[in-house]
Amino acid sequence: MSTSEVPKPVAGVGGWLDDRFHGARGVRVLMKKVFPDHWSFMLGEIALWSFVILLLTGTFLALFFVPSMSDTVYHGSYTKLNGISMSEAYASTLKISFDVRGGLLIRQIHHWAADLFMAAIMAHMLRVFLTGAYRKPREVNWIIGVTIFMLGMLEGLFGYSLPDDQLSGAGLRIFEGVLQGIPIVGTYLAYFLFGGPFPGTAIVPRMYILHVFLIPGLILALITAHLFIMVHQKHTQMPGLGVTERNVKGQPFFPYFIAKGQAWFFFIFAALTLLSTFAQINPIWLYGPYTPVAISSASQPDFYMGILEGSLRMMPAWENNFLGHTISWSVLIPALLPLGIVFTGLYAWPFFEQWATGDKSFHNVNDRPRNAPIRTATVMAAVAFYGVCWAEGANDVIADRFQIPLYTVTWIARVLVFLGPAIAFWATRRICIGLQRKDAAELAHGYESGIIRQLPNGAFIEVHKPVSPEKAAVLGAKEPIELLPGPQAADVNGIPAPSGQGGMGWARARANRAFAETVPPEENHNGHENGHAAVTASSRAEELPDAEH
Amino acid sequence: MSDIEEGPIPPRRVIGTPAPAPNLLATQDRPGGEVAEEDRLPSEPQYKAHADNAEKIVAACFVLAFLAGCGFIAAYVGLEVHSVDAVLRSNLALGTSLSVVLLCLGLGSIIYVRHVMPDVEVEEERHDMRSTPEARQEFQEYAVEGGQASQLGKRKLARRTLMLATAPLAAIPIVLLRDLGPLPGTSLRHTVWSPGRRLLLYGTNSPVTPADFEPGSMITIVPEGYTDDADALAKATVICIKFEPGQLQIPTRYIGSTLIGTRNWTVDNIVAYSKICTHVGCPVALYEQTTHHILCPCHQSTFDATTGATVIFGPAPRPLPQLPMTLDADGYLVAKSDFTQPVGPSFWERG
Fold first, then answer.
1. Are A102 and A63 in contact (CB under 8 A)?
2. CA distances from A348 to A364, A507, B53 (A)
3. Looking at the predicted structure, is the pLDDT value of residue A341 above 70?
């Protein structure tokens, strides 16, 4: 047994620490913690490592950046702007880009990492949503994750606005205009945030402290909680042979997962560095310093703010006068409604699903997306809604690239924002059910082996072979959803079920039936009606199928 | 750590079935702390020769990473910045070398995990998150016990005065934010334009006469005395467009009794509109000569310049305000007055 020769550092330092912290058993449990393997489990890790890279590169940038809107006249290496009056913030960003060695690289890594952080969170959220990994007992971690995403949007907005360039200044102007549109408190909010009329000189230092201290602090705390809860509850796993609700299969944290995580960190850092070397991002020197007088066309925010931009562009000009006050629907609706729908939906979904399915049990094995058609269809409807709003944010670019009239693009978006989610929901649900049928058929009849046999009566058949146990475990992983009492349900004594009463009862029964819809498993007979022969578990491929069937 | 606190919970067992076999899970300890030999991680990889080869590749990766790291330092020391070309060279050298460092470290690490370390799959038992009924019972009992010992349930006077005391405390952080900015007052209703203030060409800051205009062109105008004041310009920036005679058809319009647009505010077929979009305040910077459409590049609100900048398309709720304009004694364009309605985005108090 190799463990008898414990090296000195482990025994000595470990002993020293254990004398003081009593950690031996706890640390051992942590080191042996099993992490299941699946490619989709690495998406959240991308977000984690992007955040680490953001902290590292952001600290470097903060050493040089001057968060001030005081006027200065530029005399630096970027000669095209020589003698131009600009803010200290913009001038110091030029300095980082042109006069600090590696400054441009780090600044571009920081910007790319921010985009990757948000993109990875989106992909990770889709994974968690589509596989039902948010179900009991993980609802709280889901809520934490959605909150991180929301904070990430704000953090990104403040971050890319800091250089005080023409493009981000236009973004801030829009932000201020939207704030003004909020009923009753809007003008006060705008004046308090900007320290008076737009643009003022307060906004950059204020965004700076929020961007480098408050919001990253909150995100860091939430990420820590997110990871602790994940470790404490143990990771979910995808269905497979030997995978149950009571176990977790995979590789231990030490030395396997920690080494893989390290490799993944280096790969993500390498990808971001490659992007920053070869793909220019946010060349603020081309935009020039901010002035409220000018603007460039094709002004788009970073992609994660595109949903807001597109909603603003899509909205018709609606405005009301209410008792002498202006209610600016053309600003309020796009600013609040799309993100309101998305975030309320994300927060509420786990609880809505529990209410609809009546399912209060623990779930450690994830669903395959096809096995939860309503959930998957809802996700795809949300993706369609988000996607239309997002793409409309670049309507001018789309019109230009595809030679479509600008207003036509907007009109298509106005229609698709309603129609798209409906089509996506319908199509996804049909596809899921079709895939379930295919799984059931494969499980019952086996797979097409490509072997053609001639029967004694002269007919030709293709022999089907039973799927492997590993595959069967995956194909048969769907758990049925219990049917709740319907609206008119009554027990044997004629007493109506309390859960089925009233409007809520009706709604719940309807939702429940939608969720519980299932594809009946096919009988384990051979499918001669399809012209195929099946091989059951007991018969072998070499044998001829039972002639009776 | 937390797993220990929860304590082991026997797996679910259906009544009438045999008891589960002795557990062979890797993390399951035998009595006396012994770990079964078959549960230990293998100390050697399955195919040693393969692992030996993999180690060489891993080592090559790490050596390459070392060399690229040295290259990064050399590029940092050797390549100066301070010009666009130099920055591009430096960025390419630093970025490429750093990419190679990181890529090689990643590759080396993952090849090492997958081909040098022995492949294992272990299984660990999950514990219910739910505590045992006894543990819950004990918690609830103590919570009640502690609550009673605190006396807060009975001592209404102390409890209510405590709540009273915290109310202003909670308001203090909000109160403290009051001095973040001045109250808006009526400042959103006014700009710096005043009777006789000259219109200056943006960029050169020179006063303009009607003769400076070409028909069909749109120019940006800033108010005299405020050419560098961003706060003033954010509201007061103006666009001027000159038309051919007969093209301009600005109707005379009122809001209540306030005149907001009229042909009389134009000079020699030149009209002045606020450049600040009535949607969310972007400068409306695009002008299409043939259609006389002014387009905001942010959200594509489109205004017809010939008819008083009425909205043709997009989310802007109202026309761009028109600046009353006249000529001064020297023949330069000047404002007749401030705008007669608030410029820029809507706000609650706008009315």
1. no
2. 20, 16, 53
3. yes
| The pLDDT of residue B21 is above 50 | no
Query: Mean pLDDT, chain A, as a whole number?
Result: 91
Position A170 in a domain: no
The model's pLDDT over B155-210, given as tens digits with 9 standing for 90+, comes to: 999 999 999 999 999 999 999 999 999 999 999 999 999 999 999 999 999 999 99
* A361 near B CB under 8 A: no
Q: Which of A194, A281, A326 to mutate to test the interface with B (most CBs of B within 10 A)?
A: A326
Mean pLDDT of B15-25: 45
Q: Which pLDDT score, from 0 to 100, does residue A401 have? A: 95
H/E element holding A463? strand A460-465
Bridge-partner residues for A72, per DSSP? A86
Contact A247 B103 (CB under 8 A): no
Closest Cβ opposite residue A291 in set B117, B230, B279: B230
Backbone angles phi, psi at B199, to 5 degrees: -90, 125
Domain contains A407: no
In angstroms, the CA A201 to CA A164 distance is: 11
Q: Provide φ and ψ at A547, rounded to 5°.
A: -70, -20
Q: Tally the domains of chain A.
A: 1
Pair A171, A157: CB distance under 8 Å:
yes
From the list B72, B285, B131, B265, the residue with the least C-alpha distance to A170 is B285
- Residue B221 backbone dihedrals phi, psi, to 5 degrees: -120, 140
B22: cis peptide before it, omega within 30°? no
Q: What is the pLDDT of residue A540?
A: 41
Which residues in chain A have their CB less than 8 angstroms from residue B222's CB? 293
CA dihedral A128, A133, A137, A140 (to 10 degrees): 10
Q: What is the CATH number of domain B195-350?
A: 2.102.10.10
User: Which helix H or strand E contains B142, and what residues bound it?
Assistant: helix B133-150
pLDDT tens figures, A165-188 = 999 999 999 999 999 999 999 999
- Most A CBs within 10 Å: which of B35, B280, B300, as the mutation test of the A interface? B280
Is the pLDDT reported for residue A190 higher than 70? yes
Cα dihedral angle (B335, B337, B339, B340), rounded to 10 degrees? -150
pTM (two decimals):
0.91
Query: Which residues of A, range 15-44, sit inside 8 Å of B by Cβ?
Result: 25-26, 29-30, 32-34
**Is-contact A446 A467, C-beta < 8 A?**
yes
Nearest CA in chain A to B76: A101
The CA distance from A335 to A342, in Å, is: 12
Residue type, A49: W
What local confidence, expressed as pLDDT, does residue A541 receive?
39
Least confident stretch, A212-216, A262-266, A295-299, A307-311 = A295-299
**A453 in helix, strand or coil?**
strand
Supply the ipTM of this predicted assembly. Answer: 0.90
Q: Which candidate, A543, A536, A542, A547, places its Cα nearest to that of A466?
A: A536
Do B102 and B70 touch, CB atoms closer than 8 A?
no
Across chain A, how many H-helices and E-strands are there?
A: 19, 9
In B, which residues are within 8 Å of A406 by CB distance? 300
Structure tokens at A191: 């004046």
- Cα Rg of chain A (Å, integer): 29
Domain ranges for chain B, please list them.
48-116, 195-350
CA distance A533 to chain B (A): 37
Give the 3-state secondary structure of residue A464.
strand
B237:A249 CB<8 A: no
For residue A440, what are the domain limits?
433-533
Asked if residue B23 has pLDDT above 80, the reply is no
Q: Do B305 and B287 contact (CB within 8 A), yes or no?
A: yes
* pLDDT of the residue at B6: 43
- For residue A1, is pLDDT > 60? no
Contact criterion met (CB below 8 Å) for A314 and A392 = yes
